[in-house]
Amino acid sequence: xxxxxxxxxxxxxxxxxxxxxxxxxxxxxxxxxxxxxxxxxxxxxxxxxxxxxxxxxxxxxxxxxxxxxxxxxxxxxxxxxxxxxxxxxxxxxxxxxxxxxxxxxxxxxxxxxxxxxxxxxxxxxxxxxxxxxxxxxxxxxxxxxxxxxxxxxxxxxxxxxxxxxxxxxxxxxxxxxxxxxxxxxxxxxxxxxxxxxxxxxxxxxxxxxxxxxxxxxxxxxxxxxxxxxxxxxxxxxxxxxxxxxxxxxxxxxxxxxxxxxxxxxxxxxxxxxxxxxxxxxxxxxxxxxxxxxxxxxxxxxxxxxxxxxxxxxxxxxxxxxx
Amino acid sequence: xxxxxxxxxxxxxxxxxxxxxxxxxxxxxxxxxxxxxxxxxxxxxxxxxxxxxxxxxxxxxxxxxxxxxxxxxxxxxxxxxxxxxxxxxxxxxxxxxxxxxxxxxxxxxxxxxxxxxxxxxxxxxxxxxxxxxxxxxxxxxxxxxxxxxxxxxxxxxxxxxxxxxxxxxxxxxxxxxxxxxxxxxxxxxxxxxxxxxxxxxxxxxxxxxxxxxxxxxxxxxxxxxxxxxxxxxxxxxxxxxxxxxxxxxxxxxxxxxxxxxxxxxxxxxxxxxxxxxxxxxxxxxxxxxxxxxxxxxxxxxxxxxxxxxxxxxxxxxxxxxxxxxxxxxxxxxxxxxxxxxxxxxxxxxxxxxxxxxxxxxxxxxxxxxxxxxxxxxxxxxxx
Lengths: 322, 383
Known about the structure:
The structure holds two protein chains of two kinds.
Chain A: H1 2-29, H2 34-39, H3 46-56, H4 62-76, E1 81-82, E2 87-88, H5 89-124, H6 129-141, H7 146-160, H8 178-198, H9 201-216, H10 219-226, H11 231-268, H12 274-284, H13 287-315
Antiparallel strand pairs in A: 1-2
Helix pairs in contact in A: 1-13, 5-6, 5-8, 5-9, 5-11, 5-12, 5-13, 6-9, 7-8, 7-11, 8-11, 9-11, 10-11, 11-12, 11-13, 12-13
Chain B: H1 27-36, H2 39-56, H3 58-61, E1 82-84, E2 90-96, E3 99-103, E4 108-111, E5 117-118, E6 120-130, E7 134-142, H4 161-197, H5 199-214, H6 217-225, H7 234-264, H8 268-275, H9 280-288, H10 293-316, H11 328-333, H12 338-343, H13 346-373
Antiparallel strand pairs in B: 1-2, 2-5, 3-4, 6-7
Helix pairs in contact in B: 1-13, 2-4, 2-13, 4-5, 4-7, 4-10, 5-7, 6-7, 7-10, 8-9, 10-13
């Protein structure tokens, strides 16, 4: 197990190296750079631009720039400076990452909090009207793209005024007490989290249903029933535990999907997360910020997949990686 | 496999005693019997045929050119069809009422109950080319000039939403097909090579797919988009979008195909083909890959929505198809402001419904195809 984890972690290093190289090359291929955009501003003199070009090292050929970037990252854990924000990339990303994590975390609570009970309900009452309704709704629900769901909920917020129409905090956030601040963020969080959380709900629910149905067919469940245990005990104590195994793996895989899935939602709801930062940075050609953001998003995806594989081994003793 | 091949007549008449022989069903027959069991899949298929027909005939069905603006009709709401006339009598031919700008600030329109613009079919209007070939000036419907008909309203430039939806579908619906064609060719070829040859080719191809699959897709799409300037001619933007989506899309498929090929490589029919002295490429292309087809058809159908949504997202973010060309994505972009969402809901609901129905139809069709083509249900990741 330990060697497996070690091998997987080591495999991540060339992967991240490759991702950083590709991202860097893509940014080099893009026409112009951050300073070209700045030069269009008549308020900034050509000398200032030239001085900045020297300071950022943008006058160097790309392989030297990339080399310096790698050296700083590896030796000093320094991811460079955001041109547009005049702030170290690491700081900018830390904020964005935390905000994305809040969004993804809340979304995960919604997804799993609903998917497991609904999936169990559908499996226990297989072929009943509850099951049929749930399966029809989830079938249709699977086809609603995130972008539409987000815009529809934004429309709800705009028309009713029940929810803020974007952002993460109200203007008077700083004047609120701790509870007020928490509730304020929760209020802003509700709709974006609902979109990110409800999208995977349909498939998770179907998987939970299928998984429980598979287990309910097994002999040991029949044995438990034959012992005279109540149906409730058979399901919660005996069947559900095993049925949850595949769901645990899926949970890891969704971690990565949540980061990707929140991208468009963050933009529509102006949630100051990683997706928003990345889009702004790419449009402004804020080179090192883009690099950092893409690396960070990829790292979450890779770690999520690793966790998924490990959780599976932990949850299911039949699987071993040695 | 899509056409019905009748079971071949068996030559049993020659036998003296009539023996009842059950004809083996051809794959086509099996396919259709299975398909008929899923009405949703058939409905999805029919809806898609209808949508693609509309896209092909867009210039004919649309009453106006996609970029035609009307400066007096910004944010015109959808007109209702009426059948009962002012004097109370009923007519089969529907009519729309003229609506006049009542308040310039809020774009509030008021219907003029006295005005009646009867909806006419096969009317003469601006010259167009159907399918890019047949010149005509006949449109499916319209009203007599100077009246205008906006069945689904107008946008912020006073352009007819029906017309933009139809012209936009030419872009949004084909992105998926063209993208799939490219990425699946790549995926099949590279996955086939990796699985069949193994060795360093396998290693290189698999490492590349790992790289592509390790970056969350939207981040990669946006980063790739940054390589091209924003303001290109729309044809080049279109090709750029397709290229980006195809470049990302092949990786998942290649991995599955590699697995399938790997499991097939040692099978008897491959050995037989090799023993016959066929070249390795021919063995891959003619013997191994066709056996992955049922998986590929299902995977392709289920991945087309992803490509359509890729275009929608890029255009929505303003880096995809550029105005004045219409696409479903940049139509959604018009609905982004709070004002549009509160006051002009059709700007969101019209393209939104089109996108939703298309995605749903592909999902239903793909699901039905999976059951019909592959009773064993080859499971696999999303391609």
